[in-house]
Design brief:
This protein is α/β, with parallel strands linked by helices and 248 residues long. 38% of the residues lie in helices and 15% in strands. 29% of the residues are buried.
Length: 248
């Protein structure tokens, strides 16, 4: 589908707010899953068209650039408006821009009743899992070294990226894997690989937590969320200093 432009998305956001105006006025807590809804309410409040007394209005910010974009608007906005970040590093950086009273630390979580270890032998391929900001070239380098890799993710672009490896007995592409099948794949993996490219979000954090919960070794380079996770759980494996396949 052709992506909508920002103007069309913003217009749709205002239409949604107008349609739900009675519920919004009576709400004590408004959580904006779409950042545009937060920005639209913020604009209306600053213009005096939306009263926020007694309210809390929040949105999450996975990306640092979202905090920087919102910061100028928040400085003179009602105290009702707050943002959530999922790492302490993001909270510290965001607080310097918008103040500590605007930041809420919302630790990222996984379902540890689902992600648990079992007796599955961990003799399968190395698992490179996830979607955001992964260094796909790592797969090429590891396969060239004779290391079996399974690439699991949701992006259909992965199918095009790894066309040349189809038929390679060392390579498996697992797209849109159902949850039970992914759990079996994770438990059988020799290790979970998380080569994360430089970015402004805690990429790889979910996959790292899932692997730790299943007691599968994690190999990762230093990145925002994963470095903080390793420090908090005193993980025995060091973070890798580069994205060179030889180091991994």
């Amino acid at each position: 589908l052709r992506p909508r432009g920002n103007a069309a998305r913003l217009l749709q956001a205002f239409r949604l707010l107008w349609a739900g105006r009675h519920a919004l006025r009576g709400a004590r807590f408004i959580y904006c899953l779409d950042g545009l809804h937060f920005s639209a309410l913020l604009t209306l409040a600053r213009a005096g068209l939306f009263q926020t007394g007694g309210m809390t209005i929040r949105r999450h910010c996975f990306h640092d650039r979202a905090v920087r974009r919102i910061a100028p608007l928040l400085r003179h906005a009602p105290q009702a408006f707050q943002i959530e970040c999922i790492t302490r590093q993001q909270c510290a950086a965001g607080a310097s821009l918008v103040g500590e009273d605007r930041l809420v630390f919302r630790p990222w979580k996984i379902d540890t009743r689902w992600y648990q270890p079992d007796a599955t032998p961990q003799d399968g391929a190395c698992l490179l899992a996830g979607n955001a900001c992964r260094d796909e070239a790592m797969v090429d380098g590891l396969l060239a070294c004779g290391i079996a890799v399974t690439r699991a993710g949701r992006a259909d672009a992965l199918q095009r990226r790894f066309t040349s490896h189809q038929g390679n007995p060392l390579f498996t592409l697992a797209l849109h894997t159902p949850h039970p099948a992914y759990l079996r794949l994770l438990r059988a993996s020799r290790a979970v690989l998380l080569p994360v490219l430089p970015c402004d979000e805690p990429a790889g954090l979910t996959a790292a937590m899932e692997a730790l919960a299943c007691e599968v070794p994690v190999l990762a380079n230093r990145s925002m969320g994963i470095a903080e996770l390793f420090e908090s759980c005193r993980y025995p494996l060091p973070l890798i200093g580069s994205l060179e396949p030889d180091a991994w």
